[in-house]
């Protein structure tokens, strides 16, 4: 199961954020600098993604897990202060993603 890693610099400090996502067990584990922030499972039988919110220093972070329902592949995006660290696009979420 994939582990996604982001290395970021915020306010002069280095941070490592990791996501371990197991779509078979619906488990998600999020680490910040090797400290577990969240260890959870989704409610349904099928993991269709979700949105996780946490703080890094004074910055609001969102980790968005999206699933392509046709190919059953996942995309992982980290947003800091509602801006993607990979694409610089603004966070745009759907209401159903808030349930996970």
Task: Give the SSE map.
Elements: E1 3-10, E2 13-22, E3 27-32, E4 35-41, E5 49-56, E6 59-68, E7 73-80, E8 83-84
Antiparallel strand pairs: 1-2, 2-3, 3-4, 5-6, 6-7, 7-8
Task: Walk me through the structure.
With 100 residues, the chain is mainly beta. The chain has a single domain, classed as Lipocalin, CATH 2.40.128. 0% of the residues lie in helices and 59% in strands. The protein has no helices and eight strands. It has strands spanning 3-10, 13-22, 27-32, 35-41, 49-56, 59-68, 73-80, 83-84. The strands form two sheets. Strands 1-2-3-4 form a four-stranded antiparallel beta sheet, with no helix packed on it. A four-stranded antiparallel beta sheet has the order 5-6-7-8, with no helix packed on it. A hairpin with a 2-residue loop joins strand 3 and strand 4. The two termini are 19 Å apart. The model is unreliable at 95-100 (pLDDT under 50).
Q: What's a concise summary of this model?
A:
The protein has one domain: Lipocalin, CATH 2.40.128.180.
The overall strand count is 8
CATH class: Mainly Beta
CATH topology: Lipocalin
- How many discrete structural domains? 1
Radius of gyration: 13 Å
- What is the second-level CATH architecture? Beta Barrel
Topology order in helix (H) and strand (E) letters:
EEEEEEEE
Largest sheet: 4 strands, antiparallel
Structural class: mainly beta
- Give the rounded overall mean pLDDT: 86
State the strand order across the main sheet.
1-2-3-4
How far apart lie the N and C ends? 19 Å
Helix percent band? under 10%
